[in-house]
Design a protein that fits this description.
homodimer, alpha/beta, Rossmann fold, five-stranded parallel β-sheet, two-stranded antiparallel ribbon
């Protein structure tokens, strides 16, 4: 019974329908503040669905299986491509050997937000309040969220397995460096630490490249052989993917075909996050190129209803 | 998918909802029809982002690597748990041996929509028109979508690798059985076929269990040793996960902890789909249980803005 009402409410909202009490409903938009309004589908999926839990558990298993297998080989492996431009303008692969010919230790590099941690507290506040992103509130959350932020399902086990196999776990996040203490505390409170600033935790502001992570990746690769990377944003792998601001189809094609497609699941690992990200733009016409579109035959199509 | 939308349609009818024309809508927000309005974030992520392409490529690689490794072992493997209730009310694991003691051939079982195919055409129409689910329009799309529906990135390569390794590819979809010809054509047009109804393609209506797939899984397991399953909905693995209609937190906990958590990436594989599904319900308060919530200190919180 509960489910029927919940779905009915969602369906009514989708269809823009009026209820019997049309006079009050038609003039009153959905309440902007509170726990009782429908959650956005993006948050329902990422923070509350069993589907998203299954997806992240399987990917953390894939990361650990992959990196441990690489670490157990008898030969020095190649680093994964790290987003450092090579001579051809592509993505370079640093050496896993030091200048003296000795082997660098293994590391796996991870984004933090929605890769290791779920920012349930801050996202709850956005959903509850109806507010958009506010840098001051985000800093409060980054400073104080320890104990509320949840681990991404699978991350605790995955990171423990990596560390037990002798692989150094390194975090590379675009949280600001002035939140380093709070970020380390939030990581450790979920059981995915330790995290120590400038040892295995790097943040935006640690260098002069802003939110671009290639410089931090280069710094890590000076000391480590990076055998796996994971994140929820293409910028967690190479800055080049976010260089073209408005080319939605080109950005997808670049990672889904050709040189880089072979890396997904083979050194690079993507944690699904439909709540926010660099992909969060585009009109209906941009998301669906002409060859992907369809419309029903008019004979079977009732009049289009208003609203959405 | 279809099951949820049918319920939504019924709910509209129960609620006495009527279609209204533009003049009776007091406050009309963004234009409801057209290519130029912002696409929903769910569709931006699934159909247009490089992130979603990377996620599905890595999972299809994981499926093929896993199933091929199992098939190459010298011993008869166990089937993956299939959603058939066992004596304890849990999920049973059928035998991979026939009654005469011989080994059944290997199979991998896949959902179709948003697991093998992206329904870009129908979803474009929903985004363009602002309409909610319409069974007549969906049937048109299921009948006629061949050549417009896109393969999920990674599916063509993944299914080819499975078949080359001697593993039978079987599709188990909740499209209606009266769309079998169109569904097979859509699968084959993306390069992920062949698909032949009642041989390796099973649909809703092939038995009397409606959208519940356990019966079709049992039928498949009579002839095959099922070594991998993939889908975008928990119902693609076992009906039990969708039995509790209103327990959002319990549904996630059931798959993320305990008995079933170990199966993700180890026989069961989840394709991320934030656009629609059985998870698509819940208020802000249900999606974020009390222990996951946070609010900023009032001193730093500007006045709450209306809308979202």
């Amino acid at each position: 019974m509960t489910r029927l009402f919940v779905i009915a409410t969602s369906a009514l909202a989708l269809a823009g329908c009026t209820t019997v009490d049309a006079s009050s409903v038609a003039s009153t938009p959905a309440p902007a503040i509170g726990d009782h309004k429908p959650a956005p589908d993006t948050m329902r999926w990422l923070y509350a669905s069993g589907e998203a839990a299954g997806a992240s558990i399987q990917t953390w298993r894939q990361i650990a299986d992959y990196a441990i297998a690489v670490a157990q080989r008898r030969t020095v492996p190649q680093s994964v491509p790290l987003g450092l431009p090579d001579a051809d303008g592509g993505i370079g692969t640093p050496s896993c050997l030091r200048a003296d010919g000795s082997a660098k230790p293994f590391a796996a590099v991870f984004d933090v937000d929605e890769t290791v941690l779920l920012n349930t507290g801050y996202e709850y506040w956005q959903a509850y309040s109806g507010k958009s992103y506010d840098p001051g509130e985000w800093k409060q959350w980054a400073d104080d969220g320890a104990g509320i932020a949840q681990p991404v399902p699978g991350a605790v086990t995955g990171l423990r397995r990596l560390r037990e196999a002798g692989i150094t776990v390194i975090f590379n996040t675009n949280r600001n460096s002035d939140t380093a203490a709070g970020t380390a505390a939030a990581i450790e409170a979920t059981g995915t630490g330790p995290a120590v600033h400038l040892e295995n935790l790097f943040l935006r502001g640690d260098d002069a490249m802003g939110s671009r992570k290639d410089g931090r990746r280069a710094r890590i690769a000076e000391s480590y052989c990076v055998i796996a990377m994971a994140g929820d944003n293409l910028g967690d792998f190479a800055d080049i993917f976010n260089a073209e601001d408005d080319a939605i189809a080109a950005r997808r094609a670049m990672v889904a075909r050709g040189t880089y497609a072979r890396l997904w699941g083979d050194g690079w690992f993507l944690m699904p996050n439909p709540v926010y990200g660099a992909w969060q733009k585009g009109t209906v016409g941009e998301v669906f190129p002409p060859e992907t579109r369809w419309k029903p035959e008019p004979g079977d199509a009732p009049a289009i209803m208003e609203g959405q």
